[in-house]
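Appendix B, example 12.
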Amino acid sequence: MEQLPIFLNLRGRTVVLVGEGEAADAKARLIVRAGGRIVPVWEAGATIAFVALADDAEARVAAEALRARGLLVNVVDRPDLCDFTTPAIVDRAPVTIAIGTGGASAGLAKAVRQRIEALLPARLGALASALYAARDAMKARWPAAADRRRAIDAALAQGGVLDPLAADAVDGVETWLASDTTLPSSRLETIVLTSPNPDDLTLRAARLLGEADHIFHPADAPVAILARARADAVRHAIDARPKTPPPGLSLWLDY
């Protein structure tokens, strides 16, 4: 990754915004949407800063002064002066999707956002809220965290009872919790790699990497492929396909 994507809670926090005009107004709207409090100069307790000045020299001086105060700074349209950049945003609160290009192309980020906007139903945020409200019920139904995650993954999978791309998915949460869903104790799938390039993965392979609990692989497995797996999936470097996989979904990466 070129940058670390994070979601910053600005509600009630102070944000410095230096500049005027359309670019500054756009940043101000973004800060207000996130619940931040805007000030035009450094103030104790400020979290981050935005600089929207047309003159290159003035923008650089302002950024350096704010950075010297310990703030992370975004300078509009000057990625080389930025500590962070602002992404294109798909808002289905509380679901938020951010598309960033590290400042390389705001137009590209916008184009990707528009494609994603068209895919996601308006009630996606309601589904997230319903799942949040059902946390205690899910823990009671599936006490083991691994079982709970597998149940959620199955429900949210394409075609599942809570498929996020289905407009009425939120209406099925209570029915899903009351159903007699049986989880498989263990499952082992093989992914045959044709190249070290993750772009060559099939859709099925990419989906399995995103769902797997355990990844079994040769020691020289491509790092770029392993990076496509869930961050919390357990990696096992071994010489051969496992005979007795652990509970959950396991993958064997083969050549």
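The longest strand covers residues 46-52. The radius of gyration is 23 Å.
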